[in-house]
Each structure stands twice: as structure tokens, then as C-alpha cells.
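Lecture 7, part B: from sequences to assemblies.

Below are the input chains for today's worked example.
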Amino acid sequence: MITKEAKQLEKNLRLNFNQPELLVTALTHRSMGANNNERLEFLGDSILGFVIAQKLYDAFPDASEGVLSRLRASLVNQDSLAGLARKHHIGDYLILGSGELKSGGFRRDSILSDALEAIIGALFRDQGIEACQTWILNLFAEKLTELTADNWKKDPKTQLQELMQSRGVDLPEYQLVTMSGLPHAQSFQITCRTRLIDEICTGTGASRKKAEQSAAEQMLLLLQREKI
Amino acid sequence: MITKEAKQLEKNLRLNFNQPELLVTALTHRSMGANNNERLEFLGDSILGFVIAQKLYDAFPDASEGVLSRLRASLVNQDSLAGLARKHHIGDYLILGSGELKSGGFRRDSILSDALEAIIGALFRDQGIEACQTWILNLFAEKLTELTADNWKKDPKTQLQELMQSRGVDLPEYQLVTMSGLPHAQSFQITCRTRLIDEICTGTGASRKKAEQSAAEQMLLLLQREKI
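Predicted structure of the full complex, as C-alpha cells:
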């Protein structure tokens, strides 16, 4: 692996490691024992989050924090990372224990996605943050081009309502919990409840409508996080 | 604010902005309307996650990914960020809408913690990632010195058990869900359930014991995330 195969994977990934042993560690699943890719994955995950956040902040100067969060979650998730890993045939180079090998671990989304994050961590250790930025933005170039804030610009209540309709379930329910402050400076607290999840989300705002939007936004983020 | 007061806060924070208007935005709560600190907070949150991850990765070369995650969660959370914001009197400089002002928003943990993250985002926009790294590590210097991996080295099952005992509730229950693979390469799946939360966590491993540790680790992370 260290020699010919590592070189091939580096070529696939357009990388050139000074310390190729870092790449080997990044490809090593925990089923192989102690010297595995979990620590590098921890590091890579945080780098990926930062690089994509920075890119979205720059690319969408008018997008709210809620839109930026949703855009990032749409780019950086297990599905999308596993897809990128497959595109670059990372599965062929994974170093798996015999159990994982037999059960097809090299095809599993979670293992592929973790390995990709670990490769980012390894690249950071090898070449620093700027090399990571360049490589990550290149890796995501196609996805970033397709991305427009338009998809995310519909207000959260409309988005949530459309989601419920597409799933064929009852519309979300909003309920006023508290209302405080003087007439010209009121604060509303509203809960949002849907049939898709047991949790209740709460939003606050200077008007009932704003509080509802905020509650709907929380609910969208929750559903996205829970992959519902 | 832009002139004398901003200078004083910069002094408190040992910062020197080229574009002081970024600092003003970082202090502006959404209750003030459109040009608020939420986008900078989104950016700052991701930078903080990366800088602390990198530091912990370096400082604790023997810590597992689970330990690193717990160490980071213990450093970067709303309580700890609000505490740091208070230490530097950030509350005195917040720019809040009249409703938030009257209800004491400058004392609220969430508002203080968000403002601190936004200041990190503003510093990044003003001076780049290296300045952020230096400032963040200085900000967390005391907390980092106090931190030892020892507190986190107890295995997850022991930690979880001690947590249950300290809360005076029944011990966690572990249950075998599936067992697969050949005798020399088996994989176990175990669930962990506690009285503190309704959710069930699942762990897998090459032995029953390893799967239980993994399930306990998931449960610890969940309880930490949910602040239970």
C-alpha cells in the first residue's frame, strides 16, 4: 500500500504527501486496531466545517445564518461525503479488518465519509491549512457551482409547509407560549410541532410572525440534522 | 460606540481591528435588525471548532477521537463561552434592541456566547486565520492548562456509570442486538439505555465489551450535547 498503491490514490486525489504514512493512517479503519483514522477524522471534520463555512460566507453575502447553515448541511453530510469518496475510488484503498472486509465495509457510507474527512486531516498535518482549503474547494467545486442561495431563500415556514406536503403529513402546528415586553417592544415565543418528529422547537421574535419563522427554521434544522 | 468605546473593548480583548466596523457588527444582536452578528457567529463558530480541535489533537497525542470530542465539548459550549465573554466584559458593549435591553439580554448566556463567536468571525475577516488561532489559544490558555486528558481517560462505561450514580438514578442497561461474522471476526451490536434520556444509543465492536464501551461513549456524547 505504502508504495505503488498509495501513489495511485494520491494521483486520483491530486495530492502529493510529504509523509505518505499520514495518508495510510487516514485510510485505516478502526477495525484494524489502535493506529486508525479516527483522530485524523476528528481533525478533518473541523477543517471541512471551517473551509465550507468561510466559502459560503463569501459566496452568499446576503444569506442569513440560517440559510448558510442549511447550505453547509446540504454540502457536508455523510451522503455527500461518501459520494465524493466513491467518485475518487477511495473505497478501493481502505485498510479494513477482516470482519469489515467480509461485510463490505469499503462500500459503507459511514466508513467512506470518515475516510474522506481523515484524508483532509492528514493533508492538514502534512501541508497546513492553505493546502487544505485549496483541495477542499476543488473537491467541492462542482457542488458549489450547482449551489444557489435561491433554493434556500424561501422563508422557513413555507419550506417546512412544503416539506410536510411532500411527505403527505399534516401541516406544522404553531402555538404561542409567551408574550412579553411593552407594546412597542414585544417579544413572542412560539413553538412548532410536526408529525415527523417528537421534539418541539421554539422560536422567539419581535412579532408573532417572526417568532413562527424562527420556530420553523429551528424545526428545519432539526429535521435535517436527524436526517428525517 | 465606534470610537472611544470600541477602543476600550479592543483593549480589553487585546485586539486591534483594521476595520473596527466588523467589531461593531459582531456586537450587534439580531434584535437590532438586519445588519447583526449572526453571519459572523456562523463563521466564528466553525473557526473556534477547528482551532480547538487542532490544539487538542497536538496536545493529546494518545487521546482517542472520543476523548478529543469530549475535551472539545468541555471547552467550547455556551456556558464556557459566556463565562469568557463575562471575563472580558463583552456584555457592556453589546448593541441590543430595546426589548432585549430591558429584559437584560446583555446578561444572557446565549447572547454573550454568540457575540464571542461573532468576534472570532470578525477577527478572521479582519486579520485571517493565524491571528484567530493566536487569539483563541490565548483566550483559552487558562482552560487549556487546567485540562488534562486524565479526567477523560476513564473508559466510557465507567464514566457513564459514575454519572448515573452521581445523579442517583439506576445504572445504564446494555443489550445485545446483533452478533455477526465468523468466530474469529465477529461484530457485536449493543444498545445502551439510561434513565436520563429517552433515546437509545448503539455501539458496535469486535467484542461484546468493545461494543458496550462504544455504546456508552455515544450515550456520554448525547448527554453532553443535550446538556443533561
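Note for the exam: Chain A has two domains: 4-148, 154-225. Keep this in mind when comparing with the next example.
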